[in-house]
User: Which sequence fits this backbone?
């Protein structure tokens, strides 16, 4: 069993994506033996109104809710986000959300972001935060969105101990409180592996040693990224089968199972 916590459907404004429909992504998942995936709308990253992307996503995954688990993209800087969150959770059955502060013109420290986290936490929803969407070397000349600072993420997870965060598309955690035993942070976040090295610096092994195998989850970044590197990390990881199972699916399944929703995924 493998659950991918970091996948996407839809179009991206600055780049053609392959395998970005439900049928195409499921075909790729079958080829790579990935059983389920948490997906959000790639279109919503650059839509002025992200809710349109959430609506497209819900329609796309509806026939495949046994395998594709939709997460909302909510912009707390956009008028009416409270209604969008309610609709995504109660009507569309989304168990979590993804935040894009750099793309949506706010900061993690802003009160509007904190209000959204409070509202999502009250609903029992998971809050996933991509550290980046694309490598800076591949970005369009029309945008300049820097990676999120891990220091800002540390401050956020510490300020909201009752929230549950999943950190996507990041690396370098072991040099920050997020990846250290003595970091002084609550155990309210999981770290996804798509950009984390498992051989040379072996940050993945260090994270497991520092935080425990129950704090790391599998993810690929499909279809922005090929899934093979993340799958290879599972194969070469020098760890017990139980630890690999936690990383591959058990941790994700536990968090998703304990998330409130008014509609089955």
Assistant:
């Amino acid at each position: 069993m493998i659950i991918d916590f970091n996948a996407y459907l839809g179009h991206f404004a600055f780049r053609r994506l392959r395998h970005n429909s439900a049928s195409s992504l499921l075909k790729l998942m079958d080829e790579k033996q990935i059983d389920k995936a948490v997906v959000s709308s790639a279109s919503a990253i650059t839509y002025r109104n992200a809710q349109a992307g959430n609506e497209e996503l819900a329609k796309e995954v509806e026939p495949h809710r046994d395998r594709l688990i939709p997460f909302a993209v909510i912009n707390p800087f956009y008028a009416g986000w409270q209604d969008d969150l309610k609709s995504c959770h109660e009507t569309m059955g989304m168990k979590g959300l993804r935040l894009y502060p750099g793309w949506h013109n706010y900061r993690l420290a802003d009160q509007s972001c904190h209000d959204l986290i409070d509202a999502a936490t009250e609903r029992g929803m998971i809050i996933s935060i991509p550290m980046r969407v694309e490598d800076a070397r591949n970005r369009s000349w029309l945008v300049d969105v820097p990676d999120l600072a891990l220091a800002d993420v540390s401050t956020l997870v510490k300020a909201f101990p009752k929230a549950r965060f999943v950190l996507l598309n990041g690396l370098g955690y072991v040099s920050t409180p997020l990846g250290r035993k003595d970091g002084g942070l609550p155990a309210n976040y999981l770290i996804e592996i798509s950009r984390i090295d498992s051989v040379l610096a072996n940050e993945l092994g260090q994270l497991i040693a520092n935080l425990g195998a129950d704090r790391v989850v599998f993810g690929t970044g499909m279809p922005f990224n090929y899934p093979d590197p993340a799958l290879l990390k599972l194969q070469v990881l020098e760890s017990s089968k139980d630890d690999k199972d936690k990383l591959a699916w058990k941790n994700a399944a536990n968090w998703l199972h304990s998330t409130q929703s008014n509609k089955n995924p």
The longest strand covers residues 3-9. The mean pLDDT is 93. The domain at 3-257 is CATH 3.20.20.140 (TIM Barrel). Residues 49 and 78 are 8 Å apart (CA to CA).
